[in-house]
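seq as requested:
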Amino acid sequence: MTTDNPLRRIAPLAGVLSAGLNIAGDLTIGPFPDGSTPAADLPAYYRAHGAHVSLGGTLMMLGAVCFVVFAAAMWARLHSARVPALVSGVVLLGAAVDAMNELNGGAVYHLLGDIGRDPAVTGSALQAWHIHGAEFGVSGGAVLFLLGIAAAGIGYRAVPRWLAWTGLVLAAGLLAPSPYGFFAAMLMLVWVAAAGIALAMRPEPVAVPSGQVAQPVG
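struct tokens:
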């Protein structure tokens, strides 16, 4: 089934905006002290860089909003390809969890940029929030999202195979210990941008006969 709806071409490009805003946020924040930085050293850092940290957090939150639009476009793609509800549901759930994680991360940086310059905030309180921003764990939402896309592409041809296989590799990378998990998270930004461009250029999945549910590819 084909459609002339321009949203089918425009909406996936939100992935490019999401990746760009997240990268811009990282670059705006710049070198960030790790979680083991002594509490006594943090106030001086935030007095000098707090405004950049706050702005970077705002850019990341905007990137998360764009990711939601991209993920919705991806889900619509799977829905039109008649991918089983279980697979598309995993994609949607993973996207929602990852978006909330990214929104929370951006909000923490925004908060840190503000309270880090407040002399009334104690060093220990600032350090507790700083650790939340400096360290990270496995992004379960991103893993679910990528695994769902991999299943939809490899098993049902709903997305290009290269997108599915690279998503599978990235999902495994996100589960790897640091620093490999961090590098995988950075590469996922590139993947999201590439996926957005790919879906915008080819908005329609492989056609499935009307009235039939896509079957796994053997």
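The radius of gyration is 19 Å.
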